[in-house]
Structures are given as C-alpha cells and as structure tokens.
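Hi all, long-time lurker, first post. I run a small reading group and we've been trying to get comfortable going from sequence to structure in the token notation. Rather than ask abstract questions, I figured I'd post a concrete chain and ask someone more experienced to write out its structure so we can walk through it together at our next meeting. Sequence below, copied exactly:
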Amino acid sequence: MKLRHPPQSSPPEGPLESIVRGRTAVGRRNFLRAGLLGFGGVALSDILRAEAASGILSSGKAVINIHLDGGPPQMDLIDPKPDAPSEIRGEFGSLRTSIPGVHLTELLPRMAANASKYVFLRSLVGADGKHDAFQCQSGFDEKDLAAIGGRPAMGCVLNKLAGDTQNSAPLFVDLMQGRPYVRNSARPGFLGVVHSAYRPDISEMFPLAISSGMKAELEQRSQNRSEGLALTEGLSLGRLEDRVSLLQSLDRFRRDLDQSGSMEALDKFTKLSLGILSSQKFANALDLSKEDPRVVERYTPRMVMPEMRETMETPKGAQKFLLARRLIEAGVRCVSISLGDFDTHEDNFVRIRYLGPLLDHALDTLVTDLDERGMLNDVLIVVWGEFGRSPKINPKAGREHWPRVAMGIMAGGGLRTGQVIGSTDRFAGEATSRPVHYQDVLATMYRHLGIDAAATMLSDPSGRPLPLLDVGRPIAELL
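-- Answer (accepted) --
Happy to help. Here is the structure in token form:
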C-alpha cells in the first residue's frame, strides 16, 4: 500500500504576493544591475524570485542542519520498542518524557525532560540508502539531474536566491566531517561553483580521522573543496584589494564564455575573503577561544570515550553545536555540521551507548542556549541521518542499513513542538502512520526562511525552470 501525504495547510505567499505586500528589502533597479553583472543576463522571473528571497538577509531567520553520519538507529534513540523480542529490542531501556505517553530510550534523559521543546519524527521515508548526506542537504538523491550537475544543496540555493551580498559572513557555511560522501555532500549542483558553500577547515579544532579504506574515496569525491580561511602565504590585504579591483574590471563577455563559472566564483570568494579580513566578525565566530570559557565548558560533556575506532567523535565534538550558534550570531543563515560515527554494522550498542548521550548533551545544550538568548524561534534545528537501522541485530551485535524508515529530531523555528510525528510497527521497521518524506523536512526549512519551495523556481543550464522540491510540502502539524 502506498503511503500518501495528509492534506496540507495553505502554502506561504509566493514571490508576487510578497512584492505586492512591500516586503522586499532591495529595489528593482539594484536587482536589475545584479542580474546583468552577476548572472550574465536574467529573466524577470529571476528578478521577482530574488526580490522575494531578499528577506533572508534581514529577517534573522536561520537553520542549523545536523547530520548524524552513518545512519542513526531509530529504535535505540527516539523510537524504543520495549515489547519487541530481545533480538530486535536491544539493550536499552525506555524513558518517560515530559510528553504524556511518549518514551525515548534511556540514552536521551535531557531531551526526555525537555521534550516539550522538540519534535520527534518517527516515520521519515524516502531514503536513498547510501552513505551520503546529500539527501539531507537537498531532498534528492545524487543521481537526480546528474547529467547537468545534480541538484543543489539548500544552502547553495540560498546563495543563488540572495545573489551577491555585502555581508562579511557567507550565507551558507558547511562544517560537515565524517565519511567522504558526507564531507562533500553540500554541493551546488547545476547552479555552479559560484554558489558553493563556504567551507572553513575545522580539522585542527575537531580531529576526525578517515579510515584507510575511505581515503581514496575522499580524493575522488571531495574535489574543489576550500579547506581553510587563511589567505595564501604572502598575499596581503592590500594586494587582495587590488585583486578585487582587477577582477571587477575584467571583460564580462569573457566571464559569460566561462561556462564552468570559475571566474565568477573567484570574484565572489575573493570579495568574501576580503570582507572577512576587514571585519573579523566571521573569523571571530570560528574562534572558540573568544567565547566565555564557562559556555564552552557547558557545551562539553564529561564522558569517557570507548576504546574504539579513531573515526569516532570525541566529547569535544559537542562544541560544533556551539560553533553553529556563534556562526548564526555572526550573520550566517544556514550552517551544516555532522556528528558520527553512527555506522553501526558492528558493536551497535557500545557505540550508541556513547553517541546517544553525546547527542543528547550537545543538542539540548544548543536548544537551551538559543532559548536563553531569545534566538530559538528564529533558528530552526534539524537532526537526522541518511537512513535508519535494521530492526534485527546481526551476529556482530550491529544493525544494518535500513532505508525503509528513518528518524529525525526538530527544534526551534517557531514550530509547534512537544509532539511526535508518525509511528512505526512493533519492530520500528516500517512507517505505519503519517509518513514524512525527506523533502517535507526541507520544505519546512525553506518555509522558515520565507521561501515557498513548491512555487520558487530555479533555471537549469538550459533555461528550464525547476522547483526547489518536487514532492515536499511543509509539515502541516508543525506550523
């Protein structure tokens, strides 16, 4: 039986309605200029779309996209099945939450106590089944439109819709680590490299090794990745300013001929680096030594790491959540981070007994911190992975890939929290009510930023208009 979406609430107003209501922040003349200079010619629909999206820069709305690298086991975290047979139930007991009748596993005591601030998605469907965070970044699998570059990640869409900005902080910052597919999952797709994520190198702050078997994969999959904030040695601020002037004087026709977008990307990222160097606001946000030590300590759980693979996150990994908050305060509108290693084919219970409390501490600290700062309604947080885990425990005490159903957690963003969306069968292996597609979550995130994902179109390289999502609709119960 094919599961269908329930009736949805009315979609948010589209670009034209937004313009009629006078909500645009930038005049039409400026957008025409941006179109001619930045896009090499632009249609009226592109102008209207960009005008409608310009509120991203002034609204203060933001999203934090947290990827649980490897595929988190739903039954061992937010969907316990205490009455299931032991070969499915596993080792963890269930814990009552502050929501009557709702239980989590014993590994999430803080979320259980503060369940009124969360949404627990137990029926996430539509997973591609691969170790790749791309679906959590875009709503699509990597094969979709692969012939023209693939679909763009949500943060890259924001870069496109907002156009060139004078902000000293980029709109989209990708800090994902983990396996190679995850490290390079926030791709611009057919939008081109000019709309790529900004990717500062955090490997010294958060060392996370790559297994030897994945290093070749990283070389293949992580091309064109900017790993650092620092300028090339010997490149001074003055020389950078001269370079900007030089780039601005280049012949625009030559840029139009450069179909790869590399010249335009060089121009954009050089100006972005100049803005960062000039203001230091963004660079300071990435420097946790400038944070109150008591806050850093608050984010850092006192945990003993199990003696396992070097690819596992240390307790300090919880500070990535603090880094995300600081970047939002600096003006970033979309931050992607990762936590892992949830790829539990072996030793599932040893790993999750450590990773569950690490997630519980990091996420609840972030939600509480944002709430105390008056930011929680403006920042939408989504926590999920590429798929779920198999109900049956294998002989190595692990759980296998399970794309039939997955889990997610949401918080903030002015959502109607304190509820569970969907349910699964007695083994947590199939969605039995209210299936939520990956694209539905993305549509909810777009809506939070003031973007109607169904009505907003992007032009592919041939000029064909494409919606941001094809099946996703905002989750009505949360609005």
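A couple of things your group might point at:
The radius of gyration is 22 Å.
The chain has 18 helices and 16 strands.
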